[in-house]
Amino acid sequence: MFSTNLIFETTKSADTLNFGLAGLCWSVHESALSVIQPEVIITCGNDQEKSAFSFIADLYCGKIEQKFLSGTFTIKYSKIFIQNRTTLLIGLPHLSRFEIRDNEDFKRKLLNILEENNG
After folding, report:
1. DSSP labels for 57-108?
2. How crowded is residue 62: how many other Cβ atoms within 10 Å of its Cβ?
């Protein structure tokens, strides 16, 4: 397992984040991805405009699908072709706003996505 932030700058909220830095930081991620070669990338947060999920899905032209959870929360996912291989991209609801512990609906839907897409 490997973990990193999309943008290597600390902010107190997404409102003050300079999302334009994502493109500058992406070459570092590409280097890591070439070594790790993950079958699945999981992002924390899946906002349509300002999230690692939307940045990567847009960059690799992924068709976005989603499973609905309670309230307005969703798990978004997309199969993308990155560095000559298919990778499953999963965007979870941001964990600062969505509780996953003891959430059986979340666990069931996440497992379903993994099983459907990675057999």
Report:
1. HHHTTPPPEEEE-STT-EEEEEEEEETTEEEEEEEEPPTTT---TT-HHHHH
2. 21
Write out pLDDT tens, residues 16-25: 666 778 888 8
Sign (positive or negative) of CA dihedral 41, 45, 47, 51? negative
What are the tens digits of pLDDT across the range 18-55?
677 888 888 888 999 999 999 999 998 888 878 889 98
pLDDT of the residue at 48: 84
Give the span between the Cα atoms of 23 and 26, in whole angstroms: 5
What distances in angstroms separate CA 22 from CA 40, 81, 108, one per listed residue?
Answer: 20, 19, 31
> Which residues fall within 8 angstroms of residue 49, CB to CB, at 6 or more apart?
19
Q: How would you class 101 by CB atoms within 10 Å of its CB: exposed for 0-12, middle for 13-18, buried for 19 or more?
A: exposed
Query: Is the separation of the CB atoms in 115 and 66 below 8 Å?
Result: no
pLDDT grade for 76, boundaries at 50, 70 and 90? very high
